[in-house]
Amino acid sequence: MNAEKRVQILSRLRARNPNPTTELNYGSDFELLIAVILSAQATDISVNKATAKLYPLANTPAAIAGLGLRKLKPFIKTIGLYNSKAKNIIKTCKILVAQHHSEVPRTREALEALPGVGRKTANVLLNTAWGEATIAVDTHIYRVSNRTRLAPGKTVLEVEKKLLGVIPEEFVRNVHHWLILHGRYVCVARKPRCGACCIADLCEFKDKGQYLEG
User: Catalytic residues, which ones?
Assistant: First the structure.
């Protein structure tokens, strides 16, 4: 895919959604951190349902750490991998209290040192909370980048590096959310909705013809 076509694709996505953001509900950097940890292999809807019950009772590192595993787990038991996530969240909260004055650190190194926080989660925090030009490649971004040929790669890290290398600066801050939302609602996994896609004529998906009427 050439540079001109990429600009056209991103311009159309921007026109559809000039100020995109996450669909996770949060009111602070800390609430966003916990929501993103919970969102691994889970839907934003399921996370929002859980945090809607948790945050009114505990939405600071000290408060959640104070709950302990036994009291935290019932709030998140409907979310996949809740046992390991609960353990990581309690450990992370204790580290935030002990080492970061209960604040979420703003560097990649410090974020990735927190239990349950990998590169993708750190990228989400850096981009969504603080507006940095990072791209958290999840299953949606990976699929859209490869299917459209916007930035094909064999691994999520390869796609991330490719996107950062080919996306013009004016689009980098928001491309993360545009691609996630496009993959979630239009360029879905099994039956992409090519007939309702605003970039169908620019997309290089070789099988899009069979889906254009959908």
Answer: 120, 138
Residues 6+ apart with CB under 8 A from 207: none
Taking residue 41's Cβ as centre, other Cβ atoms within 10 Å add up to: 10
Stated pTM of the model:
0.89
pLDDT digits (tens, 9 = 90+) for 138-192: 999 999 999 999 999 999 999 999 999 999 999 999 999 999 999 999 999 999 9
Contact 148, 200 (CB under 8 A): no
Strand ranges for 27-124 from DSSP E: none
Specify burial of residue 65 (Cβ count, 10 A radius: 0-12, 13-18, 19+).
Answer: buried
Q: Where are the domains of the chain?
A: 1-214
Nearest to 179 by CA among 4, 22, 3, 5: 22
User: CATH top-level class for 1-214?
Assistant: mainly alpha
